[in-house]
């Protein structure tokens, strides 16, 4: 039995990775660490960090690797992430993969699985349009969506090749009901013997 659950969920904008990531993290009893959520919370609260990233995120650009990496390392150093965590939105490019590797290797840790949530482009665009109406996210403008999808294709999708070479990627069909998709992810993790880690 694997005694850790160090996970990453990857998928294009509108794939539902935030929703599914939160569900899976909850089921496994590990913290969901979403860089996008951290930035949004800071923008909302008007912190210095929020001020720093506000314009960048609204335009659909990436925050610097240094700043994002520091935020993730700080969060993963908290006690509740000792045996597991679910990363959502980080790493998002090869440099961030290398930064995360260095951090985890230093601690004698590594990712146990990477969930690739697949949805057809038209489906994710339709979902984003709906989310723009419902939530009014500042980065759900047509322009910022196009920018984020382009960055996903050019910078984020390639990180899956790195993890695929390590044999830790599970591709999951992201079209279906919320429960169906959660069930598919759970089945993939169970097949890897990844279950709720024992608390330390
Ligand atoms: P989405 O996946 O829909 O683009 P996220 O909530 O993951 O939304 O991210 C929102 C924004 O936060 C990104 O467009 C980017 O500006 C910033 N961000 C999130 N994660 C990272 C990251 N790993 N590196 C750089 N910027 C990031």
UniProtKB/TrEMBL annotation:
InterPro entries: Adenylat/UMP-CMP_kin, Adenylat_kinase_CS, P-loop_NTPase. AMP binds at residues 35, 40, 61-63, 89-92, 96, 137, 148. ATP binds at residues 14-19, 131, 176. Keywords: ATP-binding, Cytoplasm, Kinase, Nucleotide biosynthesis, Nucleotide-binding, Transferase. GO terms for cellular component: cytoplasm. Signal peptide: none annotated. It comes from the Bacteria. One of its GO terms (biological process) is AMP salvage. CDD domains: ADK. It is found in: Cytoplasm. One of its GO terms (molecular function) is AMP kinase activity. PANTHER family: NUCLEOTIDE KINASE (PTHR23359). Catalyzes the reversible transfer of the terminal phosphate group between ATP and AMP. Plays an important role in cellular energy homeostasis and in adenine nucleotide metabolism. Belongs to the adenylate kinase family. This is Adenylate kinase. It comes from Microbacterium protaetiae.
